[in-house]
Amino acid sequence: MKNFSLSSNAVVLSAGRAMAQLVMVLVLAVLARIIGAERLGIVASSMALATVASGLIDFGAGSLMIREYSAQRLTASEFASRNAARICYGVISACVMLALGLALGVQGILMLAPAFLLASVFSQTAQVCLVATHKGMKLSVLSFSERMILAVVFGTTVYFTDLTPELAFAAGYLCGSTVMLVLASSIASELKPSFRRIAWRRLWNGSRYYGLSTAVISLQSTDVLIANAVVGPAVAGIYGAVSRWTMPITLATGAFAAIMNPVVSAAKDRDDIWHRIRGALWIPIVSAAIAAIMFIFAGTFVNLVLGEEFASSTGVLQVLALAAALSAFSQVAQVLLQARGRERSVAISLGCTVAVQLVLVPPMVAHFGALGLAVASFVAQTLLSISYCLLLLKVWRRS
Questions:
Q1: Is 284's pLDDT higher than 50?
Q2: Are 348 and 321 in contact (CB under 8 A)?
Q3: CA-CA distance, 279 to 323, in Å (whole number)?
Q4: Among candidates 241, 377, 237, 238, which has minimal Cα distance to 320?
Q5: Residues 244-269 pLDDT 10s
Q6: What does the pLDDT look like over 203-223, one tens digit per residue?
Q7: Nearest CA to 174 among 123, 248, 213?
Q8: Nearest residue to 349 via CA among 217, 208, 205
Q9: pLDDT at 173 over 50
Q10: Which residues 6+ apart lie within 8 Å of 178 measured at CB?
Q11: Residue 273 CB partners (closer than 8 Å, separation 6+)
Q12: Among candidates 151, 118, 134, which has minimal Cα distance to 188?
């Protein structure tokens, strides 16, 4: 794939994801205004639990499958069988969550999390199929469509039915991801889940360190759950109201990193890698510029979108913008290192930095509230960026 192709595909994918995140931000803003910070904290905690569960189900299988398929070490039929196993494990896990919620009489987190879990698993499966087949433009369109369906279903359900806004949001979230999976399966038909032969035991074959990295990243989401347990759902709501706003900062680099995985995996040596990615290295600079804009205008954005009730989210958003700027770099560095076989080093770096973050959360939120969550995230991203810089220098000198 040529430099122009990599760069242009990343731009197209990030544009689609940017529009998708804009829709997501608007829907969350409407939800926040309707239910308030405390009830929004329950939604944020449910989404965090679902993120952890979906990350453990994936356990690095998606990224490894893309790498191995791109390097022609994994057949399309085996790819499809592993995708089927991922979905089956997701459905089973969601049913277990729902059963626990009903058995315990819990009307909050465990009743919402199953829908978010299924949506996450469906979306992951669709993205893996499209990235592996280099269909970045179609993934861009489907990412936007996924969120538009969320918005339509949420708005329609809230207006015309008696469902609570939280359930309406969860239903829209799941509907969007389901449609995305169906469409992606028709586009990348050779890789669509094959339920005639489900790879129950082979889903995670070879994904040891990929899996550890994915699991650790997923565990980062427990910071919201910890905050909820330490100081209550209101703080989780203040944090959750803006935590997804920083996604535009990492959208371009996230798209670049996703498309870069099969490209770098197929590269022969250091010079080949440089030739393939150099034309797209301006993308992280754009992410840094977006972070600066968000930091400067955080107060204006919060007041305009959420209102005075969430004024304390301004400082949270500013610190998260700084953390996201660092994350933009670490996303690219991580994929580059993993694609070149350094997944063990990545897993160790991630494990250490996330451990530091989660240890910092209880005392930080106890003293600083939602701002403490953001500071813990920033500290972790700083340490991770330093670690990846050292690893990249080491790999570059040896290759």
A1: yes
A2: no
A3: 25
A4: 377
A5: 777 777 766 666 666 666 666 555 66
A6: 888 777 767 777 777 777 788
A7: 123
A8: 217
A9: yes
A10: 118, 119, 122
A11: 264, 267, 336, 340
A12: 134
The single-letter code of the amino acid at 138 is K
What residue numbers bound the domain in which 216 lies? 3-398
DSSP classification of residue 133 = T
CB contact at 8 A, 111 and 94: no
- How far is it, in rounded angstroms, from Cα 211 to Cα 326? 23
Instruction: Collapse the DSSP code of 244 into the 3-class scheme (helix H, G, I; strand E, B; otherwise coil) and give the result.
Output: helix
| C-alpha–C-alpha distance, residues 84 and 79, integer Å | 9
Task: Give dist(CA 370, CA 248) in Å, integer.
Answer: 21
Q: Could you tell me how far CA 306 lies from the centroid of its own chain?
A: 23
41: amino acid identity, one letter = G
The tokens of 350 are what?
């991630």
Is it the case that residue 184 has pLDDT exceeding 70? yes
pLDDT higher at 104 or 349: 349
Backbone angles phi, psi at 98, to 5 degrees: -65, -40
With both helix axes pointing from N to C terminus, report the angle between 313-339 and 343-368 in degrees, rounded to the nearest 10.
170
Q: pLDDT band for position 22 (50/70/90)?
A: confident
Give the C-alpha distances (Å, rounded to integers) separating 171 from 155, 221, 304, 361: 11, 21, 27, 31
SS (H, E, C) 137-200: HHHHHHHHHHHHHHHHHHHHHHHHCCCCHHHHHHHHHHHHHHHHHHHHHHHCHHHCCCCCCCCC
Give CA–CA dist 358/351, Å, rounded.
11
Please list, in sequence order, all residues whose beta carbon lies within 8 angstroms of the beta carbon of residue 355, skipping any fewer than 6 positions away: none
Torsion of CA 138, 142, 144, 145, to 10 degrees: 140
**Into how many domains does the chain fold?**
1
Q: Would you tell me how many other CB atoms lie within 10 Å of the CB of residue 340?
A: 19
Distance, C-alpha 305 to centroid of its chain: 23
Give CA–CA dist 330/346, Å, rounded: 10
* Tens digit of each residue's pLDDT (9 = 90 or more) over 305-326: 787 777 888 888 999 999 988 8
